[in-house]
């Protein structure tokens, strides 16, 4: 058997997308009333839920409080039913911990934490269905949730993954493409300033190609921004209609 | 723009797993017809012609596109490749199936599709909203694909109708599947089988011959008699191999005997063994190079390899009895138990390794017959039955034929005609044949490759001078054989102020022009080496580079890669430096001219002093090298003097060696070794090096025995002792003996190979007695040198690196290809020399010459004729002649015929003539003249005899 052809000569990927195209993104804000902020996002078959509490007083040990800024606490979990084979542990494994740390890094860079010293912001993200690009889906969901909570941020944080196949950079990898084992890059971008909140890379990629892959990822992240922006505006519109203004 | 759709798919991976995948169906995929308004702008790549000017087809006179299904593509690729077939739509579904089923066809179809003038278009129907088809319940994958293809054809026909009212453009579905065709016609799709369509092309009758004959029903005219046993299915073979019942190996047919073959069993080194197969039934339709599964026969049926020469000559397949008779002939030969080898039979084919074969048609005896047998040039390939109407036109021509299959009731495989190369015996045709047979890529460079050449007129720019030293002031000159246009090395030598000498080797900077990864680079990598044939050179890089921009011609500025040493007068290296440079060669000399300058006392110009300095140092270097144990070997090399008009060889000459030859060689070796050290130091894991393994002691047996017969001792424990004992092996009465011994020693050697330093730990070069070696000095004609140049450029910071360069697996792949190409180039070269030798003797008639016996065999002696550097075999027994008394002694290789004893190295006189009785395999035939043996040797006076007389007395195969 010949292996899977990730990119055809005509420039189509396995699922019919072209190299730079994103999967279909659908998102909703304010899905839960009890949390301060919440959002749900679907990027193709990857589905994630984000919930934000805070800023509030430090829970647990007071010693953790930071004198000059808020503590961002992120927790990532992935539902046992999110993958093809049922997972044993929804959270607390090494991968989830790492993902939590990455999210924390990302949002510490984006949230204006110095406005809320000695307080805490909790971001809980749960992946309901995983089909590649879980990190980016989590970041995008969390951004919407943080916005929903009304926590001031520098900018949206928009994330997107990118891979590299046969000299072409592919945006927004699906699970099949990730599983093929090529290099994979995850980028969280602050679109307005073009600043990078987080950049992560798996596998080896020659530095000559890095620029192109990065370029593809950041263009995709900007596309994500356009979509998220539309979602936010619509949400605000609906909310204001309800308020009767 | 995007239509999204999710579907479920179940696959089995250990257990049942549910796979959820997305599939985006698009509406922006163009139909590929140029000028189609509905999908304008969606076009890219080669497109279909808006009004196809197709070859006139009597079946469908309207303009049309073709849409073949998978099987047509797989089996009739030869037809589709024909320039007459244009405007073909290849569906993604079809392409995928082809990809899964045959990698070579997939590659060919992609190559064809990339030709603009072929107008092939790949339609991505699986991602198209209107042509995507979902698998229905109870429908298998094949049926779904067939349906998808039909849906696409239907969509195309409707789409084209919309294009414009009056256009009668049609898409014609080509399928060989009867059911599929019926269904298509039911749905109103114009469908034909490939055969019907090709036959309807009245303007191109020659295409019919290229149709692959897939005889399923009614096409076999042979008796239904089953000759071979059924091949087992792959799943059974795999089971058998796992359980050890069958062995997997590469099938190697014997050149001498069509009823015998060996299977080289893959496995761990110790397990590597050969299995003998004898008899047609046991060979069971395997063809040379196939990967097969064999079953070992019980020990009682084991046989010894026969020493009989058998060629398949019977044109009829009815004489199974005679076949059996011949097989018995093989068996009676088995003498004693120890000679018996594991014997087996082929039970199935794991992978066919068919390629198109060159050869000639042997016409059927029946004049009107359309079925003829084709005899491949390679004797290991069985004859192939083809169907053609142009037999009379193809007779006496070299043609290419592809194999289609080998049914179990047919004595020969079935195939079809692919291409006509030209008249047999014609120089160009023969050259083409030997290039094809040795897999030497020799097509003209494609436009894509040429597009990466620098634009003319070319000059050195500011940018080129970056990281480059200006060495134009140095007195550099090149020394090469006469008529050389691809000069890749030049030298200089001058005295420094401190009394030391500065020596520079300047190599053409080819890597400056060939940038990694582009089409030019890929093509050169594929070719691997320039192939030098007797009257032709198959370039590795386009001529503009090889003979102009890279060639270090005199009095022009050229880019070079220089290796500069500071040496003292004892030729000890004090300093080594590498740099990219610009040089201006002051003279392009031949070896003879350079030698003249060195020798003449009156000349004292810069070039000459430089040459003298180089020569002096080279002598010291050579001495040092020989002291270390480097071998000086000998092989008879000949050059043809060509007639300038007809390019026929008019004279042969053995290569003359001058001091200057060895002078250039010495410095090239030194440069190679210095570079090898440098790149290995910098890139210990991915340096491209060259090694020459020491041969196993058993290889030397022949040499030692031969020397012993002359009372000389050859010691082979180390290279040094071998070199020394070869030097001492002199016989005052027989001055040529030493050369003969060196020729024998050369035959004992192993092949030198390229390798990647990270994949091996033995770097030693046995022949040169150097711990490390590489190729740096001929980048115009060897790709290995280009890689080495790139590595060195990175090492000295003159150029940037790229990912493939530091990937040792990729490098190992490159090495593998280079080793293969070098071997093939060597074979092609030899074949070319052999062919020209034949031409030479054709014009010369019969000559008799002095010769030395090189080997003694059981029924023949192998002789070397020093005058022509020609080697040949003199046979002493012939099928239809009474056998002379032959006594063979293995210990002191000698052969006693009647009363005359032949020893190795004996001087004899032989008659040389061209034997053209077999047009396909013309050969040089030799027969003994002196010493005279009654009934064996021929007289010189025979030459004047009439033809029938002479035939009787000739001895040969």
Automatic annotation (TrEMBL), chain A:
Source species, domain of life: Eukaryota
InterPro entries assigned: ExoRNase_PH_dom1, ExoRNase_PH_dom2, ExoRNase_PH_dom2_sf, PNPase/RNase_PH_dom_sf, Ribosomal_Su5_D2-typ_SF, RNase_PH
Pfam families found in the cross-reference section: RNase_PH, RNase_PH_C
Residue span(s) of domain Exoribonuclease phosphorolytic: 21-152, 155-219
Gene3D superfamilies, per database record: GHMP Kinase, N-terminal domain
Assigned protein family: Belongs to the RNase PH family.
Protein name: Exosome complex component RRP41
Gene name tied to this protein: EXOSC4
Automatic annotation (TrEMBL), chain B:
Domain PIN positions: 64-182
RNB domain residues: 468-798
SUPFAM superfamilies referenced in this protein's UniProt entry, alphabetically: Nucleic acid-binding proteins, PIN domain-like
Keywords carried by this UniProt record: Exonuclease, Exosome, Hydrolase, Nuclease, Nucleus, RNA-binding, rRNA processing
GO terms for MF: exonuclease activity
Subcellular localization: Nucleus
CDD domains noted in UniProt: PIN_Rrp44-like
Gene3D superfamilies: 2.40.50.690, 2.40.50.700, 5'-nuclease (3.40.50.1010), Nucleic acid-binding proteins (2.40.50.140)
Protein family per UniProt: Belongs to the RNR ribonuclease family.
Protein name listed in UniProt: Exosome complex exonuclease RRP44
Organism this protein belongs to: Echinops telfairi
């Amino acid at each position: 058997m010949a292996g899977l052809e990730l990119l055809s000569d005509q420039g189509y990927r396995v699922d019919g997308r072209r190299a730079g195209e994103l999967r279909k993104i659908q998102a909703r804000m304010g899905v839960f009333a009890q949390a301060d902020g919440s959002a749900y996002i679907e990027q193709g078959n990857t589905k994630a839920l984000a919930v934000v509490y805070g800023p509030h007083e430090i829970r647990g040990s007071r010693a953790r409080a930071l004198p000059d800024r808020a503590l961002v606490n992120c927790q990532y979990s992935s539902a046992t039913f999110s993958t093809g084979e049922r997972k044993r542990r929804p959270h607390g494994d090494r991968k989830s911990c790492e993902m939590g740390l990455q999210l924390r890094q990302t949002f510490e860079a984006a949230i204006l934490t110095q406005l809320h010293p000695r307080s805490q912001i909790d971001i809980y993200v749960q992946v309901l269905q995983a089909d590649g690009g879980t990190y980016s889906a989590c970041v995008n969901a969390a951004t919407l949730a943080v916005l929903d909570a009304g926590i001031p941020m520098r900018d949206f944080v928009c994330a997107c993954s990118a891979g590299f196949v046969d000299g072409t950079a592919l945006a927004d990898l699906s699970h099949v493409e990730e599983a093929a084992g090529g290099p994979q890059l995850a980028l969280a971008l602050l679109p307005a300033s073009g600043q990078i909140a987080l950049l992560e890379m798996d596998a080896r990629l020659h530095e000559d190609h890095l620029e192109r892959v990065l370029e593809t990822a950041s263009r995709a992240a900007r596309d994500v921004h356009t979509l998220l922006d539309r979602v936010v505006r619509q949400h605000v519109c609906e909310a204001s209609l309800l308020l009767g203004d | 723009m995007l239509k999204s759709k999710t579907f479920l798919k179940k696959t089995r991976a250990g257990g049942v797993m549910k796979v959820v995948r997305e599939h985006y169906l698009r509406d922006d995929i163009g139909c590929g017809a140029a000028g189609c308004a509905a999908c304008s702008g969606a076009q890219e790549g080669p497109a279909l012609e808006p009004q196809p000017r197709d070859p006139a087809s009597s079946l469908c006179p309207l303009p049309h596109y073709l849409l073949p299904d998978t099987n047509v593509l797989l089996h009739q690729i030869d037809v589709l490749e024909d320039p007459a077939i244009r405007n073909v739509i290849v569906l993604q579904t079809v392409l995928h199936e082809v990809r899964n089923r045959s990698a070579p066809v997939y590659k060919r179809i992609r190559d064809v599709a990339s030709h603009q003038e072929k107008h092939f278009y790949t339609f991505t129907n699986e991602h198209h909203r209107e042509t995507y088809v979902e698998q229905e319940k109870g429908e298998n994958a094949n049926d779904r694909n067939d349906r998808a293809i039909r849906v696409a054809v239907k969509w195309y026909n409707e789409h084209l109708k919309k294009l414009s009212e009056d256009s009668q453009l049609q898409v014609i579905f080509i399928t060989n599947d009867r059911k599929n065709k019926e269904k298509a016609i039911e749905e109103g799709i114009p469908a034909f089988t490939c055969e019907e369509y090709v036959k309807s092309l009245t303007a191109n009758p020659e295409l019919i011959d290229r149709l692959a004959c897939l005889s399923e029903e009614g096409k076999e005219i042979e008796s239904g008699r089953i000759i071979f046993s059924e091949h087992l299915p792959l799943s059974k073979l795999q089971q058998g191999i796992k359980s050890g019942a069958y062995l997997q190996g590469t099938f190697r047919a014997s050149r001498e005997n069509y009823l015998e073959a060996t299977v080289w069993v893959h496995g761990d080194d110790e397990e590597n063994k050969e299995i003998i197969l004898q008899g047609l039934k046991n060979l069971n339709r395997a063809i040379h190079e196939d990967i097969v599964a064999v079953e070992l026969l019980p020990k009682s049926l084991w046989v010894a390899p026969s020493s009989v020469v058998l060629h398949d000559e019977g044109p009829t397949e009815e004489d199974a009895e005679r076949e059996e008779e011949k097989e018995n002939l093989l068996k009676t030969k088995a003498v004693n138990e120890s000679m018996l080898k594991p014997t087996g039979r082929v039970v199935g084919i794991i992978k066919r390794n068919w390629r198109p074969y060159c050869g000639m048609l042997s016409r059927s005896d029946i004049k009107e017959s359309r079925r003829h047998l084709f005899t491949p040039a390679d004797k290991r390939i069985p004859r192939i039955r083809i169907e053609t109407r142009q037999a009379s036109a193809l007779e006496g021509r070299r043609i290419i034929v592809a194999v289609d299959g080998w049914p179990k009731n047919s004595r020969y495989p079935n195939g079809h005609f692919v291409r006509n190369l030209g008249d047999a015996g014609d120089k160009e045709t023969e050259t083409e044949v030997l290039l094809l047979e040795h897999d030497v890529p020799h097509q003209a460079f494609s436009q894509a490759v040429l597009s990466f050449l620098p634009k003319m007129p070319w000059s050195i720019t500011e940018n080129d001078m970056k990281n480059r030293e200006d060495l134009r002031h140095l007195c550099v000159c090149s020394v090469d054989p006469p008529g050389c246009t691809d000069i890749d090395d030049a030298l200089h030598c001058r005295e420094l102020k401190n009394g030391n000498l500065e020596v520079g080797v300047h190599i053409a900077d080819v890597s400056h022009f060939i940038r990694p990864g582009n089409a030019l680079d890929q093509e050169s990598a594929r070719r691997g080496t320039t192939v030098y044939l007797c009257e032709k050179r198959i370039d590795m890089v386009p001529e503009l580079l090889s003979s102009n921009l890279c060639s270090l011609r005199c009095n022009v500025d050229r880019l070079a890669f220089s290796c500069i040493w500071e040496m003292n007068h004892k030729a000890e290296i004090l300093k080594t430096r590498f740099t990219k440079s610009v040089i201006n060669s002051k003279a392009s000399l031949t070896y003879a001219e350079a030698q003249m300058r060195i020798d003449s006392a009156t000349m004292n110009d810069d070039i000459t002093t430089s040459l003298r300095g180089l020569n002096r140092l080279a002598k010291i270097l050579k001495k040092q090298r020989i002291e270390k144990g480097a071998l000086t070997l000998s092989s008879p090399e000949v050059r043809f003097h060509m007639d300038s008009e007809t390019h026929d060889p008019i004279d042969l000459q053995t290569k003359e060696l001058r001091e200057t030859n060895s002078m250039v060689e010495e410095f090239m070796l030194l440069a190679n070794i210095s570079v090898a050290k440098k790149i290995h130091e910098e890139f210990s894991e991915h340096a491209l090096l060259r090694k020459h393994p020491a041969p196993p002691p058993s290889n030397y047996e022949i040499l030692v025995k031969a020397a012993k017969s002359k009372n000389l001792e050859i010691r082979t424990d180390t290279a040094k002792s071998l070199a020394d004992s070869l030097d001492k092996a002199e016989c005052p009465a027989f001055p040529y003996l030493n050369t003969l011994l060196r020729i024998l020693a050369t035959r004992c050697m192993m092949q030198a190979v390229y390798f990647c330093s990270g994949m091996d730990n033995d770097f030693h070069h046995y022949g040169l007695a150097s711990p490390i070696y590489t190729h740096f000095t001929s980048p115009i004609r060897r790709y290995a040198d280009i890689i080495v140049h790139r590595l060195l450029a990175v090492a000295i910071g003159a150029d940037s690196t790229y990912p493939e360069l530091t990937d040792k697996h990729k490098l190992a792949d490159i090495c593998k290809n280079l080793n293969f190409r070098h071997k093939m180039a060597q074979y092609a070269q030899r074949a070319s020399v052999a062919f020209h030798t034949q031409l030479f003797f054709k014009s010369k008639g019969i000559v008799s010459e002095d010769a030395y016996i090189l080997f003694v065999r059981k029924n023949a002696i192998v002789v070397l004729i020093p005058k022509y550097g020609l080697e040949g075999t003199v046979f002493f027994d012939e099928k239809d002649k009474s056998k002379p008394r032959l006594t063979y002694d293995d210990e002191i290789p000698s052969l006693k015929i009647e009363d005359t004893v032949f020893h190795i190295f004996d001087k004899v006189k032989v008659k040389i003539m061209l034997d053209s009785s077999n047009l396909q395999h013309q050969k040089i035939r030799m027969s003994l003249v002196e010493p005279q043996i009654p009934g064996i040797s021929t007289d010189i006076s025979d030459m004047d005899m009439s033809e029938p007389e002479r035939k009787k007395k000739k001895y040969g195969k």
